[in-house]
UniProtKB/TrEMBL annotation, chain A:
Record text on subunit structure and interactions: F-type ATPases have 2 components, F(1) - the catalytic core - and F(0) - the membrane proton channel. F(1) has five subunits: alpha(3), beta(3), gamma(1), delta(1), epsilon(1). F(0) has three main subunits: a(1), b(2) and c(10-14). The alpha and beta chains form an alternating ring which encloses part of the gamma chain. F(1) is attached to F(0) by a central stalk formed by the gamma and epsilon chains, while a peripheral stalk is formed by the delta and b chains.
Subcellular location: Cell membrane
Record field: transmembrane: 25-44
GO cellular component, one term: plasma membrane
Lineage: Bacteria, Bacillati, Actinomycetota, Actinomycetes, Kitasatosporales
Gene Ontology molecular function, alphabetical: proton-transporting ATP synthase activity, rotational mechanism; proton-transporting ATPase activity, rotational mechanism
Membrane-related topology note: Single-pass membrane protein
Coiled-coil regions listed: 48-103
Name recorded for this polypeptide: ATP synthase subunit b
Length: 189, 270
């Protein structure tokens, strides 16, 4: 392009750039109406429907989540209550067991005491009985021996049982009195 | 496609080449030789880009929302973010959810269509913001204007609509006639005009800046001029990044104003 062409081009320039050529105006309007028609009739209703659907879905999900949350809270509360009950129960059982144990020990102790006392008492009775039997047999034997001895010495038969018995008794009483005196003397010393 | 139909500047000319000088970008940079002619009507690059904008916007939203799923894919997520940005950030904000829902498709289409038309400015090979040709912003502003006016008359009736448009308020007293003239002028002429021209002028100026530095870089690319060409090229990159921002902002403002005008039409009279 040379200088002449530039001059030609400059001549072609419209005097006022604010005056629109009609073909351009028409093309611009047509271009815009195509965009508007397709967006307004098809694409924007499309996306609006999807947005609405998404909104409702999100709301549904949120409700679901809230329900789940509430359920979880409920379960947790139940669990905690059960746990507390169980702890309470365990404490109660432990307490009871302790009490029972103490009672049992006390009972055993009492039983043992009683048995011991019984045994001691039985022992005492046995001893007393034995002593009594021993004294009895001793009295008889000693009486007989003494009578025999006296009979032999005196040559006189002391057949009379009553007399014999009286004599033995007197003899034994004397011995007993003597023993008592000895004991007293020992105690007094 | 030749340089005449695509570039609108002379690619042969450099610094120190005799017989030609620096050709600054100007109004002629926005006039393209027609690509072809149908029945006497010329079809040029901005028209092609406008139609491509339609293709891009429709393709994107078709890919994103065509088979929309409740669990979105990546593209659908991006589409939803863009859709929500316009719907909540612009329409619901200005008009409320109840009133605004009707205008959401229009505003979403408007935003993305304008944005993509702006965006061609920094796309290689396209490299031209369609909205820097007045026809396109004026067409869109005209649609908004028609919606705005018909809503005003539908909502308030004939007398009420004129009261609405003229800011009729008895309590103003003697200044009322003056206010009415100004308000009518503003509502009927200035607002729709600035609505279109704001977008047009911003894109026009931005493209002019990028062109200035681009053509400058190209022109200086000879001999010692290479150093200056480098500086100019850095500015091209900076301005391109800045334009990327401005394109989105202008599309946003265009739709924001459209929402505000409709809100004004629906508002009760004072």
């Amino acid at each position: 392009m040379n200088a002449d062409a530039l001059v030609n081009m400059a001549v072609e320039v419209p005097e006022n750039p604010l005056i629109p050529p009609i073909p351009e105006l028409v093309i611009g309007l047509v271009a815009f109406f195509i965009v508007f028609a397709i967006l307004a009739k098809k694409l924007l209703p499309n996306i609006n429907r999807v947005l609405e659907e998404r909104r409702s879905q999100i709301e549904g999900r949120m409700e679901e989540a809230e329900a789940l949350q509430a359920e979880a809270q409920q379960v947790l509360a139940d669990y905690r209550a059960q746990l507390a009950d169980a702890r309470h129960e365990a404490a109660r059982l432990r307490q009871e067991a302790q009490e029972q144990g103490a009672t049992l020990i006390a009972e055993m102790r009492a039983e043992g005491q009683r048995q011991r006392e019984e045994i001691i008492a039985a022992g005492h009775a046995q001893i007393a009985a034995d002593r009594k039997a021993a004294a009895q047999s001793l009295r008889q034997d000693v009486g007989k021996l003494a009578t025999d001895l006296a009979g032999k010495l005196v040559g006189e038969s002391l057949e009379d049982a009553a007399r014999q018995s009286r004599t033995i008794d007197r003899f034994l009483d004397e011995i007993e009195a003597q023993a008592a005196d000895t004991t007293k003397a020992e105690a007094g010393r | 496609m030749s340089a005449e139909t695509m570039l609108a500047f002379d690619t042969q000319c450099h610094l120190f080449i005799p017989g030609c000088g620096f050709e600054a970008p100007g109004l002629h940079s926005f006039v393209f030789e027609p690509l072809f002619t149908i029945g006497g009507y010329e079809f040029n690059k901005p028209m092609l880009l406008a139609l491509l904008s339609t293709v891009v916007v429709v393709w994107f939203f078709w890919a994103a929302f065509g088979r929309a799923k409740v669990v979105p894919g990546k593209l659908q997520m991006v589409g939803e973010a863009g859709y929500d940005f316009v719907r909540r950030g612009l329409v619901y904000d200005a008009l409320g959810k109840k009133e605004g829902d009707k205008y959401v498709p229009f505003m979403v289409s408007l935003f993305f269509f304008v944005w993509i038309m702006n965006l061609w400015s920094i796309i290689p090979l396209a490299a031209f913001p369609v909205t820097s040709v007045i026809s396109f912003p004026i067409g869109l502003a005209l649609i908004v204007y028609i919606i705005w006016m018909s809503l005003t008359f539908k909502k308030h009736g004939f007398v009420g609509a004129w009261k609405n448009l003229s800011g009729y308020d008895k309590s103003l007293g003697w200044v009322l006639p003056l206010i009415m003239v100004l308000e009518l002028l503003q509502h009927l002429i200035i607002r729709p005009f600035t609505h279109a021209v704001r977008l047009f002028a911003n894109m026009f100026a931005g493209h002019m800046l990028i062109l200035m530095f681009t053509i400058g870089s190209w022109y200086l690319l000879n001999g010692i001029g290479v150093v200056y060409a480098g500086a100019s090229f850095v500015m091209t990159v900076v301005m391109t990044a800045f334009e990327l921002f401005i394109q989105a902002v202008q599309a946003y403002i265009f739709v924001l104003l459209a929402c505000n005008y409709i809100q004004g039409a629906l508002a009760e009279n004072h």
